[in-house]
Design goal:
The chain is of the alpha+beta class and 349 residues long. It folds into 3 domains: 2-172, no CATH class; 196-242, Roll (SH3 type barrels); 249-331, Alpha-Beta Plaits (2-Layer Sandwich). The protein has 11 helices and 10 strands. Strands 6-5-4-3-7 form a 5-stranded antiparallel β-sheet. Strands 8-10-9 form a 3-stranded antiparallel β-sheet. A hairpin with a 2-residue loop joins strand 3 (200-203) and strand 4 (206-213). Helix 4 runs antiparallel to helix 6. It starts with a helix and ends in an 18-residue tail after the last helix.
């Protein structure tokens, strides 16, 4: 038996082959039992908690990480044996290809789980689905990096390739500067969230409701009905007023009464206006003052808040308050002022 184990074939003894084969079998059994105990239990728990994304993530471990462990066990065992340089190079290249393939797919599974969950929690299910192109771009970058690592491992001079791609990339970047600017602006909009779909915004001299945010442009439905297509860089460079984020509207209004108004009537005006504003459930009174003396009027200024961002409700509330003011002033014989001039004629005898 000892003589059989010491016999040499292709540079290795029969005993070395037996130890390598035993190591592979033991490693396979350990990985198999880990899969049976832990992975199956994780899948069962994910199903009980109704988490489809977690289920897909665990299946990704089962289909991508475990095969990589199997190949790793074989590779480590074969490394302990002596082979010719040519065979060793073939084994190394084969393992590099398999490792990069399964490693990238497992990394994509991790990104899909964590980034996908972040998109759903921060943007909602529907909005998260609309942002899948962003994940596709991220996956593409992962594949490119993995391919470059594979080339480096199998002996190619990646630095020369990257330098050549860098020069070409500069030329492409200069030619597509506007497109890249809109793409980076899309990332700014995505992460900073100055506005979202459904928000009513005003920028420059345009106003409308956001309908779609794309990689290059944003579509806005204007008040007159037409669809505005605006580049993302134009929006991020502009001063944007987002009225959807507004919780209430501040209203400042002024008026004047004639100089013939009596002092007791002037003292009544702030009280009457305050009562009118407080009578409305959607308004909050701030202040009212006899502001000063005008050329042809005694001027008042009042400030109140409409407790909604709805423009139609705001206009209806303002209209009702204005009509109530007219009615109350008519009952109390208070007259609004309008521009007048008094001409004094001095008649000489």
């Amino acid at each position: 038996m000892q003589e059989l184990l010491e016999q040499n074939y292709f540079g290795n003894t029969v005993g070395a082959y037996f130890i390598a084969l035993s190591s592979i079998v033991i490693a396979f059994l350990v990985i198999y039992f880990v899969k049976r105990i832990f992975v199956k239990r994780l899948l069962r728990n994910a199903g009980e908690h109704s988490s489809p994304r977690l289920t897909l993530f665990i299946r990704g471990i089962n289909r991508r990480l475990l095969p990589l462990l199997y190949f790793g066990a074989v590779y480590i065992t074969l490394e302990s044996l002596n082979f010719s340089p040519g065979i060793e190079k073939i084994i190394s290249i084969a393992y590099s290809i398999v490792a990069v393939w399964f490693g990238i797919r497992f990394l994509i599974s991790i990104l899909d789980y964590f980034v996908g969950n972040y998109l759903i929690k921060s943007r909602g299910e529907e909005e998260g689905k609309k942002l899948r192109p962003l994940l596709g771009l991220l996956y593409f970058l992962v594949w490119v990096i993995g391919f470059l690592l594979l080339l480096d491992n199998i002996g190619f001079k990646v630095t020369t390739l990257i330098a050549g791609l860098g020069i070409s990339g500069i030329a492409v970047a200069l030619a597509a500067q506007a497109i890249l600017g809109d793409l980076f602006s899309y990332f700014v909009i995505f992460f900073d969230r100055p506005f979202e779909i459904g928000d009513f915004i005003i920028f420059d001299d345009k106003r409308g409701t956001i309908e779609k945010i794309g990689l290059k442009s944003t579509r806005i439905r204007s008040l007159s009905g037409e669809l505005l297509i605006v580049s993302n860089s134009n929006l991020t460079d502009s001063r944007v007023h987002n009225y959807k984020k507004m919780e209430r509207r501040r209203v400042v209004f002024n008026f004047g009464v004639i100089y013939k108004t009596k002092p007791e009537q002037l003292r009544m005006i702030p009280v009457l206006i305050k009562e009118i504003i407080l009578k409305n459930k959607l308004t909050e009174y701030d202040r009212g003052n006899f502001q000063g003396f005008g050329d042809s009027s005694l001027n008042f200024e009042f400030v109140y808040f409409v407790l909604t961002s709805d423009y139609a409700v705001y206009m209806d509330t303002q209209e009702k308050i204005n009509l109530d003011i007219l009615e109350v002033f008519a009952k109390n014989n208070i007259e609004f002022a309008y521009p007048t001039q008094t001409l004094v004629i001095n008649k000489e005898s």
